Amino acid sequence: MWKMINKGMKEKMVKYSVVVPVYNEEGNLLKLDAEIKEAMQKLGAYEVIYVDDGSTDGSLNVLKQLKNALIVELNRNYGQATALDAGFKLARGDYVISLDADLQNDPADIPAMLKKLNDENLDVVAGWRKDRKDKLLVRALTTIGRAMRKTLIADKVHDTGCTLRVYRKKAVKNLDLTGEMHRYILAYLRWKGFRIGELVVNHRPRHSGQTKYGYKKSVKGFIDLIYVWFIDKYSQRPLHIFGAIGLFSFLAGITITIWQIVMKLFYGLDLSNSAWFVLGFFLIITGILLFSFGIVIDLLMKIHYNTSPYEKRYNVRNIWSA
Q1: Angle at 28 (CA atoms; ends 18, 39), nearest 5 degrees
Q2: CA–CA dist 212, 251 (Å, integer)
């Protein structure tokens, strides 16, 4: 019988936590749950956490038919990154496994990924969908995204979009996911010093439901990529980038202003009609503002790194367990 769980959830020893974000996948869930449990039952004590990300079909009703599962019902559709974040924060296992709910990831790959994790003393093993079964548009968008990631953040992993991954608990507990940041989990963890490997995994065609990936998500992902690039290079000292740009702007403005004053003194230039004089003054003010902005951001980052509570970005409606 299903019951709603509050903060006093019944604790049990769990070695593995499987986290599955779900959005409108009612036709895949029963088969997926059976495959997950078939793969996990040979490994040891485990829990399966399904995070319903505001599904508008019958996904939640199907999830409530499952046995031995934890169902997290979010208030609305927040996106895959937030759904993963909610599941990761509830995960109690020493190893945390994530995969999609669309049956394209194969749970049978999990044991091999865990073996690689332990044999090579890694913190994360990411799935690599070397032989992808997606539609042409999805493959094209991911190819462009991979090229951008390689250029901006020197991403060495072949497939950062594959949700099928195994993590040590300490790795996922360092995450706080928003937006489309699930695509950059590996870059963020690498920046934090975690050891990352990858393994070729089986990728299956979608048989039910519609893909959630398209050009709109690609645009959001690119914006998050710029954010990751900034965090990777300047999160410790944002003053370095804002200060450098501000200093360049200030010096350029001073140079132009001095040149215009010299032209006024020796050649009678009318400064009131000089666009160069206005530009020089503008660059000086911009430089001062950017440098000041860099100092403020630097101080805010220090405050951020010295405070632990995260801002509450999403609400869980219910948590169900059988």
Answers
A1: 40
A2: 49
| Sheet containing 3-4: order of strands | 3-4, 316-321, 70-74, 46-52, 16-22, 95-98, 165-168, 124-128, 196-200
Q: Are 189 and 157 in contact (CB under 8 A)?
A: no
Amino acid identity, residue 33? Answer: D
Using pLDDT thresholds of 50, 70 and 90, give the confidence band for residue 235. Answer: low
Q: Are residues 85 and 111 in the same domain?
A: yes
DSSP 191-214: HTT--EEEEE--B----SS-----
* Tokens coding 295: 């100092």
Cα–Cα nearest to 123, from 161, 173, 162: 173
221 lies in a domain?
yes
**Averaged pLDDT, 265-274:** 84
Give residue-wise pLDDT tens across range 87-110: 999 999 999 999 999 999 999 999
Confidence of residue 1 (pLDDT cuts 50, 70, 90): very low
pTM for the model: 0.70
Which structural domain range is residue 292 located in? Answer: 239-305
Q: For residue 318, is it within any domain?
A: no
Reported as a single tens digit per residue, the pLDDT across 61-81 is: 999 999 999 999 999 998 888
Asked whether residue 96 falls in the same domain as residue 9, the answer is yes
What mean pLDDT is predicted for residues 29-54? Answer: 95
- Structural domain count of the chain: 2
Does residue 316 fall inside a structural domain?
Answer: no
Same domain, 104 and 165: yes
Tell me: do 72 and 112 sit in the same domain.
yes
Residues 92 and 149 in one domain: yes
Check residue 240 and give its pLDDT. Answer: 74
Rounded CA Rg of the chain: 25
Residue 85: exposure state from Cβ atoms within 10 A (0-12, 13-18, ≥19): buried
